[in-house]
Amino acid sequence: MKLKARIPYIWNKSVPASLPPSKQIRQWPLGGTKCIIVGWGCQRAGADVTDVASVAELKALRGRTCDQFFNDVNNGHEFCAGYHKSGLGTCPVSKI
Predict the structure, then answer these.
(1) Contact, 35 vs 61, CB < 8 A?
(2) Contact indicator for 58, 83 with CB cutoff of 8 Å
(3) What is the pLDDT of residue 95?
(4) 94 pLDDT band (50/70/90 cuts)?
(5) Residue-range definition of the domain harbouring residue 75
(6) Alpha-carbon distance 21 to 23, whole Å?
(7) In CATH, what number is assigned to the domain containing residue 34?
């Protein structure tokens, strides 16, 4: 994972992901922030999960923009990202 933010960390063989302080977590990431997703997923809607990892770049969405596309996001511990009708994203949880 590569974060482009000034978040302090200690480097060793295993490094847990560093998150912002709890007071700031509801505003993180800021809308428009570039997010990289990596994983094993579908190559297209309705397809089977692949055995080859893929990578995609998405933009973090906040507020009304997020609500327009995703009606079940819990802003206390989730955020949404993507480009409307771009074909980029993650598989629905039901596919995995």
Answers:
(1) no
(2) yes
(3) 40
(4) very low
(5) 26-95
(6) 5
(7) 2.40.10.10
Cα 28 to Cα 21, 55, 59, distances in angstroms: 10, 21, 12
Q: Which helix (H) or strand (E) holds 69?
A: helix 63-69
Do residues 95 and 76 lie in contact, with contact meaning Cβ atoms separated by under 8 Å?
no
The alpha carbon of 18 is separated from its chain's Cα centroid by a whole number of angstroms, namely 15
Q: Which residue in the block uniquely carries the two structure tokens 């999960």?
A: 49
Average pLDDT estimate for 15-35: 75
Tally the domains of the chain.
Answer: 1
Tell me: the pLDDT tens digits for 57-77?
888 887 777 777 777 776 666
Query: Whole-model pTM above 0.85?
Result: no
Q: CA triplet 10, 11, 15: central angle to 5 degrees?
A: 90
Residue located via tokens 């295993």: 14
Is the model's pLDDT at 52 over the cut of 60? yes
